[in-house]
C-alpha cells in the first residue's frame, strides 16, 4: 500500500519543498539581527533532528554499514551546505544568494545530461540564473556573500546525490532523522567554538525559540522529507534542473517576507527558469524505465 507522499506526483513534492525551504530561509534571515547565522543553523538542525528522531525512532543498530555511512555523509553535506549558505545570507539578498547557490545543482544536471534537449533546458535555466544574478548583484549584494553562496551550491549538489543514496538504502525518513542528528552535531561543534554565548539565550527566550522551531520545520523537516520522497522516483539530473525554481521562490519570499525589491529583469529571469523547469518535467515523463535505471546506477557510482 502506497503512503500519502507516494501518491503525490514527484514534481509537486519538489515544488512544496522549494516553497517551504525559501520561506524558512526568509524567517531565518529575520533572526540574524539577534543571532549569528551559525547559531540559527544549529538550532534549525537540532530541533529538526529531535522532531524526526522522536517521531520515527530509527533502529540504527539494524542498519548495514553502507546505510550508516550514507546517512553520515548526508548529514555532513547538509551541515556544510547550511552553515556556508547562512553566512552568505547574512551579507547578500535572499534572491541573489539562492541564484548563485543554484549553480551547484545546475552543474550536477549538466554533468549528468544525456540528451541535447536536457542540455538546452539546463542552459535556458543557466541564462535565467545569470540574468537574475546580475539584477540582484546590481542591488548591492556583497561579493563575499555571493562567493559563499557558490560554495554552498557545491555542497548542495553533494546533498542531492547523498540524499538519493540514503533514499535508496533506507525506508521512509529514518535516514533523514539520523542525517539531521549528524548535521546538528557538526553545527553544534562549530557554534560552540564560534558563539557559545548565544545558545542559552535562545533556549530561554520564548520568541527566539518559537522562530527557531518555525525555521526548523520550514527549512528542514518538511522540505527534506519531501525531497527524499521525490528522489526515490526522480533522477538526480531531473531533480537538479527542477531546482531552478529555487531562485524564483527565494526572490518572491524575499519580496513578501523581507520586503526586498523585484525588478523587471528579475521577472524575465524568473520566466526563463520556470520554462526550463516545466520543460524538463514534461519531457521526463516520456523517458521510460531504462533511463531511470541508468540514473540510479550513476548515483551509486558517484557516492562510492
Please, what is the average pLDDT? 78
Strand content: under 5%
Instruction: Tell me the number of structural domains.
Output: 1
Q: Write down how many β-strands occur, each being a DSSP E stretch of 2 or more residues.
A: 0
Percentage of residues assigned to helices: over 70%
The secondary-structure element order is HHHHHHHHHHHHHHH
Shape: globular
Describe the structure in brief:
It is found in: Membrane. With 304 residues, this protein is an all-alpha fold. It has helices at 4-7, 10-29, 37-56, 65-89, 94-101, 103-111, 116-137, 143-169, 174-194, 199-204, 206-231, 236-242, 245-256, 264-284, 289-303.
Please give a structural write-up.
This protein has one domain. Helices cover 80% and strands 0% of the residues. It has 15 helices and no strands. Helix 4 runs antiparallel to helix 8 (143-169) and helix 7 runs antiparallel to helix 14 (264-284). It is globular. Its main location: membrane.
Amino acid at each position: 500500500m502506497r503512503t500519502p507522499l507516494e501518491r503525490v506526483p514527484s514534481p509537486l513534492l519538489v515544488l512544496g519543498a522549494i516553497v517551504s525551504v525559501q520561506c524558512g530561509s526568509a524567517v531565518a534571515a529575520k533572526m540574524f539581527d539577534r543571532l549569528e547565522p551559525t547559531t540559527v543553523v544549529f538550532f534549525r538542525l537540532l530541533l529538526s533532528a529531535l522532531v524526526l528522531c522522536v517521531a520515527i525512532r530509527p533502529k540504527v543498530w539494524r542498519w548495514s554499514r553502507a546505510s550508516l555511512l550514507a546517512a553520515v555523509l548526508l548529514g555532513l553535506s547538509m551541515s556544510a551546505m547550511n552553515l556556508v549558505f547562512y553566512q552568505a545570507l547574512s551579507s547578500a539578498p535572499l534572491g541573489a544568494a539562492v541564484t548563485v547557490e543554484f549553480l551547484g545543482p545546475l552543474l550536477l544536471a549538466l554533468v549528468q545530461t544525456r540528451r541535447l534537449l536536457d542540455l538546452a533546458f539546463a542552459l535556458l535555466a543557466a541564462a535565467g540564473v545569470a540574468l537574475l544574478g546580475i539584477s540582484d548583484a546590481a542591488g548591492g549584494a556583497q561579493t563575499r556573500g555571493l562567493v559563499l553562496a557558490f560554495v554552498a551550491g557545491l555542497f548542495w549538489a553533494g546533498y542531492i546525490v547523498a540524499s538519493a543514496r540514503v533514499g535508496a538504502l533506507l525506508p521512509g525518513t529514518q535516514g533523514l532523522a539520523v542525517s539531521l542528528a549528524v548535521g546538528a552535531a557538526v553545527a553544534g561543534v562549530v557554534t560552540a567554538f564560534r558563539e557559545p554565548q548565544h545558545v542559552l539565550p535562545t533556549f530561554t527566550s520564548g520568541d527566539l525559540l518559537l522562530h527557531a522551531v518555525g525555521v526548523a520545520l520550514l527549512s528542514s523537516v518538511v522540505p527534506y522529507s519531501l525531497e527524499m520522497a521525490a528522489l526515490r522516483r526522480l533522477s538526480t539530473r531531473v531533480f537538479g534542473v527542477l531546482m531552478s525554481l529555487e531562485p524564483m521562490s527565494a526572490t518572491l519570499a524575499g519580496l513578501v517576507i523581507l520586503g526586498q525589491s523585484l525588478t523587471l529583469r528579475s521577472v524575465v529571469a524568473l520566466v526563463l527558469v520556470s520554462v526550463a523547469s516545466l520543460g524538463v518535467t514534461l519531457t521526463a515523463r516520456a523517458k521510460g524505465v531504462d533511463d531511470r535505471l541508468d540514473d540510479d546506477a550513476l548515483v551509486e557510482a558517484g557516492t562510492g
